[in-house]
Amino acid sequence: MTSLHHDRLLESISARQARVGVIGLGYVGLPLAVAVARSGFPVTGFDIDPAKIVALDDGRSYIEAVTDEALGREIAAGRFRSTTDFSDLGQCDVIVICVPTPLTRHRDPDLSFVEGTARSTAATLRSGQLVVLESTTYPGTTDGIVRSILEETGLKSGEDFFIGFSPEREDPGNRVFETASIPKIVAGDGPRAAALMQHFYGAVVKTVVPVSSNATAEAVKLTENIFRAVNIALVNELKVVYEAMGIDIWEVIEAAKTKPFGYMPFYPGPGLGGHCIPIDPFYLTWKSREYELPTRFIELAGEINSAMPRHVVSRLAEALDRRQGKALSRSNVLVIGLAYKKNVPDIRESPSLRLIELIEERGGSAAFYDPHVEEIPSTREHLPLKGRRSIPFNEESVRRFDAVLIATDHDGIDYKALADWAPLIVDTRNVFARLGIVADHVVKA
């Protein structure tokens, strides 16, 4: 019967008749669901948030990577529907889990969403289903946790159902690559699961990159983001050292990147943000303790990057004292950019939230302007900031502040006007130099 389950599912995928369930309709799940539907599969999206389902039923996308038009086409074609009813998972032939994997306050993995979703999947699990985890996690999660929960039903992986891992590679705001054009790492628990993974994702994305095991695929995702975290930490540390020497780190990087080999540019900033780089490396540091092996580079990178918001606020305080003759404790500061990266509304793990907190911890007052974020939503780590709204961007509003802190360099901001209106600007993104705006009251940090 093992071969029969596999062959039937393979045939169903080939004919684009397999119903695909995507669990978690956020920054990863919704773009994936629409890409799968666009490739011809019937898709059911699942989420615990009823507000998301209401929006999707109305044809309204809340994710920038998915336009209302793209969503509407798949709904109109009958290829996409969404629900909060997880009992419908039993109707799905392929189930893809795209739920958050945050850290606890102690920087340990929080797999409660993965475990809860695995149990919801197990409640309707049947023979002939392929279950895929896309959520970033440490090596061993798919086979050790998800498979174990599913096998509590009495069904066996590789015999009755199939399980695989394919790490998400979404990049909010990237106009060059979308879900279907980003190469996809795939792996499965055994050769039949691996073949189903290649067949399914090969029908959705342009390039599939198979690896030997689920643990290897999990390690690939961590390696990609650890690489970025360590290199960003390096330039952040160099920024502080060169700053003390009177050397501009941005000029150094621009010159260094002209070398056509052996160098790749990374850029400093006010801290790390997003759903990957501030979180993913610590999944490996946690898992490495099981093997009694230290991860010194990763932990040091985390310390350096975590220290950047304090360094920036110290530079802000110094600039206020030297340029304005005013203490930070008596100053009003406008933070430009709440999102963690330019041109997106995504505030997950944004250093701007920490910058606001640090300014106010030192007695100052802080407000923000972001053309992509109207209001600070509820967050686990910064709950007291909930409900604060972006100020209007005009001369009258900006002149009320003693200093402006550039935390995110969105393209849709009039930096020339900002230079004219603000008495002091602390620039963590080098945006003024990059745009050729020369002003004595702009200080890099």
From TrEMBL:
Organism: Sinorhizobium garamanticum
UDP-glucose/GDP-mannose dehydrogenase C-terminal domain sequence ranges: 334-434
Matching PANTHER family: UDP-N-ACETYL-D-MANNOSAMINE DEHYDROGENASE (PTHR43491:SF1)
Keyword Oxidoreductase part of the UniProt annotation: yes
Similarity comment text for this entry: Belongs to the UDP-glucose/GDP-mannose dehydrogenase family.
UniProt KW Nucleotide-binding keyword: no
Assigned keywords, A-Z: NAD, Oxidoreductase
Pfam short name (any one): UDPG_MGDP_dh
Protein name: Nucleotide sugar dehydrogenase
Domain of life: Bacteria
SMART domains referenced in this protein's UniProt entry, alphabetically: UDPG_MGDP_dh_C
Matches recorded under InterPro entries: 6-PGluconate_DH-like_C_sf (IPR008927), NAD(P)-bd_dom_sf (IPR036291), UDP-Glc/GDP-Man (IPR017476), UDP-Glc/GDP-Man_DH_C (IPR014027), UDP-Glc/GDP-Man_DH_C_sf (IPR036220), UDP-Glc/GDP-Man_DH_dimer (IPR014026), UDP-Glc/GDP-Man_DH_N (IPR001732), UDP_ManNAc/GlcNAc_DH (IPR028359)
